[in-house]
Amino acid sequence: IRIVVAYPAGGVSDVIARALGDKLSAQTGSAVVVENKAGASGAIGMDTVAKAPADGSVLGFSAISPLVLSPHLGKLPFDAQKDIAPVASVMVSPVLLLATSASKSQDFPALVREAKAAPGAIRWATSGPASLGHIMLEQLHAASGVDITHVPYKGGGQQLNDALGGQFEILSTNAGPTLTPHIQSGKLRPLAVGAPARLPGLPQVPTLAELGYPAANLSSRFGIFAPAATPAPVIERLNTEINRALANPEIAANLRATDNEPAGGSPADFAREIAREYEANGRIIRAANIKAD
């Protein structure tokens, strides 16, 4: 089994996909190989999955953004609604807004004040155009009128390296194990979080909804996908094995230790969640007149 991760090595998606792959290999007796295909906010990796043999040998691991955000912002090399089959929801991941050494902001209100005082001077790095971080930034633009410069990356690995080097002021990224030591050391300062509630690991950090920006208070859902023509019995078997892996105490503990929450459920459950998010994001993008960079 080949799992195509739609983001670079080193980010939370890569770490979780490899841990999940190890469990799937042990459960099924099949070798599982993880391959990173980053770019276009996950669309390049998902295009690989859309065009792969529909026999369960090639799967994708991605946030649902390429299916629910990207189609509203531009033409994709695949049909997000017809070419990809949801297999299983894996995790819900909060989005952290972190200040780097290049920023003087000690909290989110200070960031807004500084952005208003110096339009365009503050740089905000996301995992790419049409990513959830990009949508959050545009929602903040619309709600507060601040002018913050968008710096799109292909994913989390290089983005984190540049954040630690102070190449920009603000980083938006999913919670993950690679962030924890840098937050603890003070190299990255959490200003806010996109999540339904404050995180157990960062109880002092307010959500964007608490700060008065409910439309920007977004979190990511990641899952496993297959080519659309994959037979239903194959998808059901994969779904069963993925849910079994997510129930493993080691996987669940690794996710929760970094404030990510295991998901699971049936393929139909996942498909309904994707359909809801597609409609909701379409409304957000149209209302805010958000354009891809």
Structure characteristics:
39% helix; 10 helices; 20% strand; 293 residues; single chain; alpha/beta
Question: Can you characterise this structure?
Answer:
The longest helix is centred in the last third of the chain and has 22 residues. Helix 1 crosses helix 8. By secondary structure, the protein is α/β, with parallel strands linked by helices. 48% of the residues are buried. It is globular. It has 10 helices and 10 strands. The two termini are 35 Å apart. The mean pLDDT is 93. Strands 1, 2, 3, 4, 5, 6, 7, 8, 9 and 10 form a 10-stranded mixed β-sheet that branches. Strand 1, helix 1 and strand 2 form a beta-alpha-beta unit.
Topology:
Layout (H helix, E strand, L loop, with lengths): L1 E4 L6 H17 L4 E4 L6 H8 L7 E6 L1 H4 L15 E16 L8 H10 L5 E4 L5 H13 L4 E4 L3 H9 L5 E5 L5 H6 L3 E6 L24 E9 L4 H15 L2 H9 L3 E2 L4 H22 L5
Total beta strands: 10
Shape: globular
Mean pLDDT across the residues is 93
Taking pLDDT < 50 over at least 5 consecutive residues as the criterion, the unreliable ranges are: none
Can you count the helices? 10
Rg value: 18 Å
Strand content: 15-25%
The profile of the biggest β sheet is: 10 strands, mixed
Helicity level: 25-40%
Distance between the termini: 35 Å
Structural class: alpha/beta
From N to C, what is the helix and strand string? EHEHEHEHEHEHEHEEHHEH
